[in-house]
Each structure stands twice: as structure tokens, then as C-alpha cells.
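Schema walk-through. Below, the input block comes first and the output block second. Nothing else is stored per chain. Lengths vary across the set, and this one has 187 residues.
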Amino acid sequence: MTLLKYLQRNARIQLVVGLFIGVAFGFLLQKSGVTDYNVILGQLLLRNMTFAQLLVSAIIVAMPGVYLLVHFGCAQMHVKPGTLGSVMIGGLIFGTGFALLGYGPETAAGAAGTGALDALCGGIFGMILGSGLFAALYPKIKTRFLNRGPFPAQTLPELLHLNQGLVIGLAEIVMVGILLALAHLGW
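--- output ---
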């Protein structure tokens, strides 16, 4: 049995690996400085592009990585159907939390881990409260809002009628260009 098959069949090991990846992700967020409120504020004021650079760099690495995992049968894509209604509700939830605290979910968790009380009390509490509120309202908003305005395609390659590898290659070129432009502009 290969290591991959062993991991796929062992739920407890999957939890341990997930925990390890989550801790490593939080560590890297903290070390990069993006859990610092001032870095996030600098991003919003277009004075500090650390967060944008980190995000684009992560996408540059993850996008072809996921594509290769799926291509070689090591992972499966589970793309959920998107709708305008679900994007609007999700944007309202995320936007409200971000507007109130200046943290997204990942940076709030990372900042809470470093002892930031605003992230711990407001961010973590807000995520739990928001999740509970969404779960309670879900039956009412599912048909009324969430299923409204289905997207014509579930992925960008489907929408463009192009090969997935080609779209990833083009996106990689654009994102590397963005990083180079940010560096050239002194950000």
C-alpha cells in the first residue's frame, strides 16, 4: 500500500496531517507579518503590499500543485456550483467581519494565536457567531437567496472553453507579472 492510499483510508492520520498543515500555515502567516493589523491596514491604504505579495505567491505555488495532484490521480476536485446569491451573501458576511475588525478569517486566527485580543475576542467569537447565525438562517435563505443567479460555468477553463493547463499557465504568467510590477513600484 502506498503512502497516499494509507493516508486516504486513515481518517485519524488525515486529521493529524490537517492539524500539522494548519499550524504550519498559521506559523508562516505570522512570520510573514500579515497577521499584524498595521500590515493589513497598510494593504488597505495601498502603502504595504506584503499581504498581496504573499497571496499571489501562494496562488502561484498552489494552482499548478493542485492541478498536478488531480492530473496524477492523487486528489479529486469537488467544485460546488456557484450562484450570484451565494457570492453576495458570502461577501456580506466576510465584508462585515473585515470592516469591523480589519481581519479576514485566516489572519484573525493567526493574530489570535499571537495573543491579539481584538482578533481573539472579536474575530474568533465573530466567526463562531456568524457561522451559527448562517446555519440557523440557512433553511430560509437557501431557496430565497443562495440559489439565485447560477453561474454559466463552474470553473474559468469551462467558461473560456480552454484547456485547464493552458488557463493555469496564462494565470501564472499574469501573477508573476503582478509580483514583478509590485517589486518595480517599490512595494
